Amino acid sequence: MSTVPARYEAVIGLEVHAQLLTKTKQFCSCPTTFGAEPNTAVCPVCLGLPGALPVLNREAVAMGVRTALALDCRVNERSVFARKNYFYPDLPKGYQISQFDLPFSEHGKLEIPDGAGGAKTVGITRIHFEEDAGKNLHGVTEAAGRSVVDLNRAGTPLIEIVGEPDLRSADDAVAYLKRLREILVALEVNDGNLEEGSFRCDVNISVRPTGSTQFGTRVEVKNVNSFRNVHKAIEHEIARLSGLADAGETFKQHTRQWDDEGQRTVFLRIKEGSDDYRYFPEPDLPPLILDRPWVDALAKTVPELPDARRRRLTSALGLTAYDAEVLTAHPKIGDFFESVLAAHPSDPAWAKRAANFVMTEVLAEAQAHGLTVTFPVTPRQIVEVLDLVTAGTISGKQAKELYGFIKGSSASPTEVAKEKGMAQVSDAAVLEQLCQKVVDENPKQAQAYRGGKTGTIGFFVGQVMKLTQGSANPALVNDLLKKVLG
Amino acid sequence: MELLDSSLLDAADAVRAGKISARELADAAIARIERDDTHAYLDFDPARTRAQAISVDEKRARGEALGPLAGVPIGLKDVLCTRDARTTCGSKILEGYRPPYDATAVAKLRAADAVFTGKLNMDEFAMGSSNENSAYGPVKNPWDKSRVPGGSSGGSAAAVSAGLALGTLGTDTGGSIRQPAALCGVVGLKPTYGRVSRYGLVAFASSLDQIGTFAADVRGAARLLEAIAGHDGHDATSVARPIDEYVGACGRDPKGLRLGVPAEYFEAGLEPEVKASIEAGLKAFEGLGCTLVPLQMPHTKHAVATYYVVATAECSSNLARFDGVRYGLRVDPGKDLEAMYGATRDRGFGAEVKRRILLGTYVLSAGYYDAYYTKAQKVRTLIRRDFEAAFAKCDAIVGPTSPSVAWPFGAKVADPLAMYLADVYTLPASLAGLPGISVPAAPSASGLPVGMQIVTPAWDEARMLTLAHAFEQVSPAKGKRPARS
């Protein structure tokens, strides 16, 4: 499956920039809006006007700390902001406030599926605070050749999560990003949107002869904006770098970017003197002191993370790994499912039925937008529908029909089932007649059954259900058929 | 106009008592500024000043309570943002620039009902010790117009000296309040770093910059400090500490206070006339019942080098925002972005600013950072420790503010190092973040002003003012003003 020639091994590390879902910007009280009129969510601070000063947003710090805790990072009691100096029109101060040699958290880890049913641990080097830049826009004004700048995004709080180069394939990288994203979304600190750029990824990659412990020359692929493209970009780079290695060609460390149209990475710039950002401690902000009691209090606000939830669903409730994965794909989906579960907690049969119903019916129409998911029904309605099935009032097939009637409304499933005359045929006398009819009409299968092929009973059940258009109680039909075929 | 030559407090009391209107005071100041030949003002708008004064008078007419600076004509260094006046920082790159907001210190003075006379000339971006770096031409020293007023707050010092305002705000990064105060014969007060909000002060060196006050007398400077001091939610480096009654501290008896006299402040480089004046001043302190404590502050000699690493590093970053993209000057050769940046900054910045940006960029560069910036931070700590050790033995440190009296224009322009040495006695307290004040001591034989510097431990502005006020009462310079032309 992998395109790596066996004699090369890829070494991949990811840097993720995640916008924090604070109400206001990192260093001023402007709102963090997306899609507002250009340059309306700005003030002297985020415009970098002369004399303006940054003041740290405590909400952003809390979100960063919760993320660090969820990723098993050490939270440093003292960290320091630093200025990263470079000129660019979308960077109003001529420097970005970031953290450099003393980040607020370090030494974390993240478990990812290894693709073979197991798990592997990926190290998190560090997480630090940053502020986002604005956006340069080209071709939006009449004036030919002019670019304009929108600074609404400038100063939006970011955390940069730097991963260890522990990843070995494109699959690893995508698995890491998905796990990381679901944690950020579960913490409600980031909306996980790659397309709008609120969750951005830079890929560092090199190849080396398999078995070697040294690193090859690496390239960085910037801002790849979907999981699919991350996968493609890595596959492309592995093949390209392996080809260079085969040809004995060397190259300088450089930055590339994914060209979606050409489905390849292209050279962007060489890493050299221009990358001297002249970092130094930000004199406008005192060191960030995170006192233990505050961090401990924040630790209590970290919810059950998706991995733990999946373990609970599989080990305590017997769901398959696949089901657990689907039902935790978004924290709100997990919450919805758990509300249904709560009607009959620790009942594996109920869990299985609820899981199947939620996955096949509800998720088909659930719409995720960042942190929120809109569901066509409430968990309460699903509980009611499934309770009708358990009670034998309606069949499984009818349950789906009933769901069709109630979705998008707040109607009571019990009422609707009554109105629509939906009731499962549980009249033994009626059903026995039908069973007899089906057995009589299919003597060959009846003989087979009697000859020991008891599996053919499924065929008879199916025929009875067909005759009743699904309204027969299947358990009862099963029993009656055994009697008739007896 | 006698009131303009009286003390800031007397004028404030007269307005509050209704003996004089804010309008009358403002008109007097306007009349003087219109005839001013020191070039202290960069932005002066009589209509704006008058309107502000009239609104103070109307406030009194309505019977509303007046602020502590009601009707007092106050000038502002042009590095402080004002929403109703241009803020150029003495630079071409900000020619005509109007900020959309007031600096916190400015807003506080407005709230205290002060009346603004205008924006005061300065060395470009507060970089300089002679005012010769103003892109709009230097301020002249009111005592001798062939001489420099000191810098960088030369306009703020000269305006008070020449009676063109009763008080002014300046900023001090390495001596930019105390040194021009000394050279112009007025009181200049730099508070503890963090005492006054820097919000709206266009940054030169963020870890050193501090807004302070000028007045003809110590109580005036104290009253202004009372108005602008205090924690500000817009400045993370401003500190929430109790503000003492600074005017109240003036007049307390300094008897028994121990004054440290560092040997290093009296070494080669100190002009004999200044030395004589300061030595006489030290005797005067003894006469007030203070004890002199001889001190060694061995790291003083490293202050200039340390300062020019730290300050230039910060300035190289702080001045990056002047890139022609959003405000101020833009020079676009029509080639590409790099060319626009280059041309704008080349045309917009003066020679000294460029020199410091280059120095600062160099000391922060990969491979040089540890040798310069990291080392300078370590020396800065040693200088701070010199003060800690000194304050274990004394309550304040006294000595000359400047090694020389005001020098003739052009005398040091060709020699930046000689110019940098003008701040040799003020830099250590700046690097340590300590409060310092310069009070007029006995003038030189040629009649030029000399300043006595008093430095106290952090947050102890009150004791500094007690000493300054007591010294002022016995100083031969008391009540002396330059001749009016």
Description of the molecule:
The complex is a heterodimer of chains A (486) and B (485). By secondary structure, chain A is α+β, with helices and mostly antiparallel strands. In chain A, strands 2-6-7-10-1-11-12-13-14 form a nine-stranded mixed beta sheet. Chain A has a three-stranded antiparallel beta sheet with strand order 5-4-15, with no helix packed on it. Chain A has a two-stranded antiparallel sheet with strand order 3-16. In chain A, strand 17 and strand 18 (372-374) form a beta hairpin. Chain A starts with 7 loop residues before the first strand and ends with a helix. Chain A has 15 helices and 18 strands. Chain A folds into three domains: 8-299, no CATH class; 306-419, no CATH class; 428-485, Orthogonal Bundle (Arc Repressor Mutant, subunit A). Chain B has an eleven-stranded mixed beta sheet, sandwiched between helices. Chain B is globular, with a radius of gyration of 21 Å. Chain B is α/β, with parallel strands linked by helices. Among the domains of chain B are: 3-256, Amidase signature (AS) domain (Amidase signature (AS) enzymes, Alpha-Beta Complex); 301-377, no CATH class. Chain B is built from 17 helices and eleven strands. The A-B interface holds A 44, 47-56, 83, 85, 87, 89, 92-95, 149, 276, 278-280, 283-286 and B 80-81, 87, 89, 94, 97, 99-101, 103, 198-203, 205-207, 233-237, 313-314, 316-317, 319-323, 325-327, 337, 341, 361, 364-366, 369, 373.
What class do helices, strands and sheet pairing of chain A give? alpha+beta
How many beta-strand elements of chain B?
A: 11
Morphology call of chain A: elongated
Mean pLDDT of chain B: 96
| Terminus-to-terminus distance of chain B | 14 Å
Count of domains of chain A: 3
Q: Strand pairing plus helix content of chain B: what structural class? A: alpha/beta
Q: Quick gist of this model?
A:
The complex is a heterodimer of chains A (486) and B (485). Chain A is α+β, with helices and mostly antiparallel strands and 486 residues long. Chain A has helices at residues 58-70, 170-186, 227-246, 292-299, 306-316, 321-327, 331-341, 348-365, 379-390, 396-406, 413-419, 428-441, 443-450, 457-467, 474-485, and strands at 8-19, 74-75, 78-79, 81-85, 95-99, 105-113, 119-131, 135-138, 147-150, 157-163, 199-209, 219-224, 254-259, 264-270, 280-281, 288-289, 367-369, 372-374.
